[in-house]
Amino acid sequence: MGVIVGPRVIDAGMSFLSVLISPVPVAAGFPSPAQDYFDGRIDLNQHLIKDITSTYVVRVSGDSMEGAGISDGDELIVNRALEPRDGCVVVAVLDGELTVKRLRITGTGVVLQAENPAYPDIHVPALADLTIWGVATRCLHHV
After folding, report:
1. Which helix (DSSP H) or strand (DSSP E) does residue 113 occupy?
2. How far apart are CA 95 and CA 122, in angstroms?
3. Global pTM?
4. pLDDT tens, position by position, 7-17
5. What are 4-63's pLDDT values in tens digits?
6. Please, are residues 40 and 19 in contact by the beta-carbon 8 Å criterion?
7. Rounded to an integer, what distance in angstroms lies between the CA atom of residue 35 and that of residue 51?
8. Does the annotation mark 101 as catalytic?
9. CA 125 to CA 6: how far, in whole Å?
10. CB-based burial of residue 123 (10 Å sphere; 0-12 exposed, 13-18 middle, 19+ buried)?
């Protein structure tokens, strides 16, 4: 279904995570000569989050967005300050229920589009109560 479980506030005063970063890209095809050292640290706050005061992490439940690379159990970084646009992956509240879908704005209305053919798109009726809670900016996918 693609519902969201428990948004968490990212504390602006807390360091989210600082990890070592490789100085060169790692080949995903044929192996390249290995670099046996790392080039310092990267602050994931700065790399992943543009507006710390409006950013939340939400965990996805369900598989309706698998075609967009968002799987059950993944965590989305969601910015509530961004303007939702056609084609964005959003966290929406439709008639009191949270869902994650791709926002489509058409000449005939708003559609919350699933990214899995097993799920129908949701054509939002004119009188429905729809709030775009936030725009997903990153997906933290488990491997």
Report:
1. strand 109-113
2. 12
3. 0.73
4. 554 444 445 55
5. 444 554 444 445 555 545 555 666 666 655 555 556 677 777 778 888 888 888 999 999
6. no
7. 34
8. yes
9. 27
10. middle
